[in-house]
Each structure stands twice: as C-alpha cells, then as structure tokens.
Amino acid sequence: MKIFVTSISIFFAQVAFSMELAAFDSAVIENYVVEKERILKAGEYKNARRFMEGDLTRDGVSDLAMLYTLEGIGGGGNNYSFFLAVFEKTADGIKFIADAKVGGKITRSLSFESIEDGTMTFNTKFIWKNDALCCPSGSGKAFYTLNHRQKKLNELNTAPKP
User: Fold this and answer.
1) What sign results for the dihedral spanned by CA atoms 12, 79, 132, 141?
2) Using one digit for the tens of pLDDT, what is the confidence trace for 28-82?
3) Nearest 5°: phi and psi at 71?
4) Coil, strand, or helix at residue 117?
5) 151: how many CB neighbours lie within 10 A of its CB?
6) Most CB within 10 Å of its CB: which of 107, 139, 141, 142?
7) pTM for the full predicted model
C-alpha cells in the first residue's frame, strides 16, 4: 500500500508541477523537444516525461531537469532512448543549458530520486546477466552534475546493485 500511495503522490506532484510551468516555459521545452526529434529523426513518448527542480547552476535558484524518451531514432523501429535535459531558471523564464543520452531499451532506465548540492541522483534498472529485455533485474544509482561553463552534463561514478 505504501508504494501505491507514493506512486500516486509522485504522479500528482508531477501533474501539479506541469501545471505550474508558465506558457513561455512550456514553449521552450516543446521547442527543445521538437528540435531534438527533428535532429534524431525520432518521436517523443510524451507520457514518459518527468521533471525535477533543484539548484544545478549553484546560483541559489532552482533549475529544471527533465527526463524524456525518444522512440524510433533514425526513422523507425521499436528502440528507444532516455535523455536528460537541464533548463536554467532566469528572471525571463527558463533557458536550455545541456542535455545527454542517459539510457535506453538495452542499457538502463532511470527515475529521479533527488537533486542536492548540484548533483542529480537517479534510481536505475538495467539488464543483468541472463535477463530478458523485458525484465531487468539489475538496479542501482546514477549521478549527474552540470558543468555550466561547458554546457555539459557529467556522469559521476554509478553504483550498480545485482
């Protein structure tokens, strides 16, 4: 029951957060995703979009991190990849800073855990030894930080758990 209630809480927090995005901010995010789809010849699975706020630029202002999924990269097929994008909050709204491919169908999936001290922490699931693609049994953590000057996301050491 606790997992179910937590899942519902996360869902409603996600919905509430999505509704709080200003129209300008939503347009920035949509334009970013549309351009990424065009470049990679892919389509976004929009229901998988997840957001988390936290200070990633270390300026005392919460920034926005977004996990999203692109399918059919290269123009088709049933493969998918997970991407992480970071947007800086400014007085005028949000602006894109950096992104990275962080997982995929045969590598790993991620879910937000926290943003603290400029580090994004994710729970991961990955295919372990004899797992079928449908049923990953590996779990662990992934950690990312933002190099604001280079406009680049850096993955720190990950911690898999068999």
Assistant:
1) negative
2) 999 999 999 999 999 999 999 999 999 999 999 999 999 999 999 988 888 899 9
3) -115, 155
4) coil
5) 12
6) 142
7) 0.82
